[in-house]
Amino acid sequence: MPDAATLERLVGALKANDADSVIDTVESPGRVAIEVKPESIVGSLEVLRSAGYEFLASVHGVDYYPHEPRLGVDYELLSREACDRVALTLRVSTEDPHLPSVTPTWPCANNHEREAYDMFGLVFDGHPDLRRILMPEDYEGHPQRRDFPIGGEPILFTHNEHNVPRWFE
Amino acid sequence: MSTVDPAARELSDYRKMEESITISETTEFEGDRELLTLNLGPHHPATHGVLRLLVTLDGEVIRRLQPIYGYLHTGIEKTAEQKSYWKAIPVVERMDYVSYYFNAMAYCGAVEELLEVEIPKRAQYLRVIHLELNRIMSHLVFLGTSALDLGAISVWWYCFRERETLLDLFEMSSGQRMHTRYFQIGGVIEDIPDGWIEQVRKFCAIMPERADTYGDLLNKNEIFLQRQRDVCPLSVEKLREYGVTGPLLRAAGDPWDLRKTMPYSSYEDFDFQIPVGTKGDNYDRYQVRLAEVKESVKIIVQALDNLPDGPTITDDRKIALPPRHELATSMEALIHHFKLVTEGMRVPEGEAYYAIEGARGELGCFVRSDGSSKPARVHMRDPSLVNMQAAPAATEGWLIADMLATVAMFDPIIGGVDR
């Protein structure tokens, strides 16, 4: 995690790029997460890239149910020079789960963004190939959301195959 | 019994989505050459699991490669959310089923970061020993199965002989051959049994020589060499762009290894080297792994030599179960035991990302706690999923046979890709 001076510098750089992009800074043991506005994520990641955080390790989708706005995305950045990690987070609501995709500028985010779309219904605008990645193409719903029940899915057998909708289309 | 009237229902986006997967009905042309789209998998012996590959071919030359995942999706992350923290370890281990110690380590590490718990030195060393044994095991499985793909069958038998020895060692220390659940939050579940260290030493004495033998078997195999040397190389820049880590990145010459650069679990105590390649072709990918086996043996020997005495799990009773003998005499121990087994530990609210150097690259675990006794989110950054993003770039323009060799060298474990 970056020390206080580095963090201040990073937040300053983020604010210089877009004055009201930074919402909050969450410091916990061993980790710093900077919360930014969803619209400014592409610019913010570029700012951190030029500050040395050149490797986007992963993108995690999160559901903060019952808190609002419910959905979140977590970008884990790594600086190879400083051997240091910092996280960028953002929150969007389930009513409007749109956010800009970072895949055009960070090709490594491709599969992770598809997974977050698949599991949480986060729509990454500008993603070159936003399809479901793990669930079947015709699956309805986003199973990693906290209000998605487990065990609620009918299992196909010959006796119920015509009642379970759509499999034969 | 209700019947479904297809006309009455709005058609789902299924067809639209299916069209976005480029299985075009019309013939595709490149200049005056007709392209052929071929489906490989999900059940194909050369795809190492249920990986589906959609290849567009011009003759035998690959013009486009599209991996399609999800055939082994079992919802482990969703399952983990329904279990208390320590009961989620067995399901997390089953993600990447060839490197189960790594999965457990990443998950336990993330939870330990949230709990801010100190791990006893002996437990850290035991973790290192098991992680490195697991790395050898994983690389042996890689070597055996990919040599099998390239027609060298005998290597497979030899590799699995050593793997068998390793599984016996795991069984001896934990009672299970695979998915051992040996790592616990706060340490390891119990101390190693008598005689285990001698068995590991015996293994460490023969393994480097065996690794050389396998190298000799393959390095004098003309067919193997022709399918490996200078085939499908990728530059460091290209690999970094796709987020590739681990042996694949090191094969291209970038000595990035989290064990060295950001040590965890006392890796800073050990003296070992990072094998790197020069070209980043298939041959380097295989050689780097073979060399890593020997480096892992070095780490294990050092850890055994300097194995400290002391407890193997934290003595924080809110996290670790009390020793069995205390239950008969101490009321507090009984209460702690009861609370841990029924409810589980409560973890302070927060988020943690804990990354380790897995057998295939950076294996990171993201855990979010909402203050209850069950994780609110467990997400693995699995190296296989990220590394596969580079597969199209590596294989486009090469022959279909080279593609199979390259997928074998990428060593994706589909259990980790799909989780």
Question: What does this protein look like?
Answer:
- The complex is a heterodimer of chains A (169) and B (419).
- With 169 residues, chain A is of the alpha/beta class.
- Helices cover 21% and strands 27% of the residues of chain A.
- Chain A has helices spanning 4-17, 41-50, 110-120, and strands spanning 22-28, 31-36, 55-63, 71-79, 84-92, 98-100, 123-125.
- Chain A is elongated, with a radius of gyration of 19 Å.
- With 419 residues, chain B is an alpha+beta fold.
- Chain B has one domain (76-382): Orthogonal Bundle (Cytochrome-c3 Hydrogenase, chain B), CATH 1.10.645.
- In chain B, 47% of the residues lie in helices and 13% in strands.
- Chain B has 18 helices and nine strands.
- Chain B has helices at residues 14-20, 76-81, 89-93, 100-115, 121-149, 153-174, 196-219, 222-228, 236-241, 247-251, 258-261, 282-305, 324-327, 331-342, 383-387, 391-395, 400-410, 414-418, and strands spanning 28-30, 33-40, 52-58, 61-68, 183-184, 187-188, 350-357, 362-369, 375-381.
- In chain B, the strands form three sheets. Chain B has a four-stranded antiparallel sheet with strand order 1-2-3-4. A three-stranded antiparallel sheet of chain B has the order 7-8-9.
- In chain B, strand 7 (350-357) and strand 8 form a beta hairpin.
- Chain B is globular and about 85 Å long.
- Mean pLDDT of chain B is 87; it is low at 1-9.
- Classes of the chains: A alpha/beta (169), B alpha+beta (419).
Helix content of chain A: 10-25%
Return the string of H and E elements of chain B: HEEEEHHHHHEEHHHHHHHHEEEHHHH
Radius of gyration of chain B: 24 Å
In DSSP terms (H or I, runs of 4 or more residues), the helix count of chain A works out at: 3
Biggest contact: A-B, 50 and 51 residues
What do we call the CATH topology of chain B? Cytochrome-c3 Hydrogenase, chain B
Which percent band covers the strand fraction of chain A? 25-35%
Radius of gyration of chain A: 19 Å
The oligomeric state of the chains shown is heterodimer
